[in-house]
Each structure stands twice: as C-alpha cells, then as structure tokens.
Amino acid sequence: MVGSVAQLWRYPVKSMLGEQVAEADVTERGMLGDRRWAVLDEETGKIASAKTPRLWRALLSCRATAGPDGAVVLGPDGRALADDGLTELLGRPVTLADTPPPGASLDRSKPDQVLARGLDADVEADVVRFGSAAPEGTFFDFAPLHLITTSTLRSVAALSPRTAIEVERYRPNLVIETAEPGFPEHSWVGAELRIGDGLVLRVIASTPRCAIPTLAHGELPRDTYALRVLAEHNRVPALPGLNPEPCAGVYAQVVTPGRVRPGDHVATG
C-alpha cells in the first residue's frame, strides 16, 4: 500500500481550467473526457498552450466541461464561448479542435527564463511533439495520466512563503493521499500501481514542471513559488540521460483499464 485516491480531475480542453469528478473511467487513452479538445492557432498550426504564457495564459481564465455534444467553454465572465469569442479573448485566430493535426506540436517556454524575465518576455522555447508516450490522436504532451501525491503538495506548501499550494496549479488527474514525507512518487517510476478493483497503471517518468503552475488560474493569483520551490528543492532527471529539472508528480500509462473513485486503495505491484 502506498496510499489512496483523494481527488480526481479532468481537463476537457487543453490548458483550460478543469473539473473535479466523483468517479471516472480510465482507458489506454486516459481518463474519459480528459484533454479531449485543444485550441489550435490558425496562423502557426500549433496547439495553443499556457506553457507559452506570453501568448496563451488567458486560456487559464476559461473553464471547460465535457458536454454531450462537445466541449462547453466558459469565458472569464461565465459566458459560453465559441471560436470567435476565443479569438477575441486570446487576440489570435483560433479554433477548437477535437483531433490533433498531422505533426501536432506546441511551444514550451523555458520556465527558468519566464521566472527571470516575466510573463511577457519573448523567451526561448522547446518544441513539444505529441504522442511520444501516449496513444496516437490524443492531445497529451507526454503520457495519458498525471499523478501527484498529497505529500508533494504538503512539501511545496511547507517550503513556500505562502505556506500553501493549490492542487489546481499542477493539473493532475489523480491526487494520491500519502503519508510518506517529501516527494515519494518519484520512487514509483518503473513500477506498476494497482488502484481499486482493477485499474493498473505503469509509472514511466517524473513530471518536469513548466511555467503553468506559476500562472493565475481563474481566481487563483499568480504564484511563482509553485515553481521556485521545486527548482530549489526537487530537481530530478525526468528521463534517463536528461539534466535534472524541477519536478512534481509522475506520468503514467494504462496497463489495465478500469473505473476509479476517491477512496480507492493504491498499491505497487
């Protein structure tokens, strides 16, 4: 036993605010309804992501839910937004897409440069291509599930001047209640997790953090310590051969699909 499921989250539109759910079906394509849609920049053909705050941080002022007829996007004032409303809000021509274009990619601004130069600075960026550890045709940056522990959240809060951190900043699918101090999920990399009655996940990598946790999320204000704490206290190699990066949480793939609910036991197997 390593803990139990504390919370479940999904984010129907990539880089928008998500929704907490009471239970969820999980398949090899991730949690049902998670990252099902994304905003496409019509000028560049790239996926819009708040990983580039200079252009796209306003995405985090929108809330998305998965409706029976598609994504429902609510703007900062609570009104429903279609493509023209998103274009006006973001200041660039965009459309809501349900399928990644061929060779889909996004820009990930260097987080250390964003911290040093500010949100509006034109900083260097890495190009992230979809599908390296996720099923084809999905909008996941790397893998279909992201997990974080309450131990990690408590550790970041204790090291922050605010003595608090909001789980929404790290955008996990599963929040795992754990008692072990520090950042225990990094030790799960390479292991399988058995959750509830049948769900089995394989943890494949620690999660390097971008600038997104530092940004305003809806009513949550900007908090640079959501990244600074990790940069100072939890730099680990996300993948073999890479330099250590600020990390929080882990990525996982689905070995055996299943249903997950808060309270489900989590064990390594």
From TrEMBL:
InterPro entries assigned to the protein according to its UniProt record, in alphabetical order: MoCF_Sase_C, MOCOS_middle, Pyrv_Knase-like_insert_dom_sf
Pfam families recorded: MOSC, MOSC_N
Domain of life: Bacteria
PROSITE patterns in alphabetical order: MOSC
Residue stretches making up the MOSC domain: 108-269
Name of the protein in its database record: MOSC domain-containing protein
Source species of the chain: Hamadaea flava
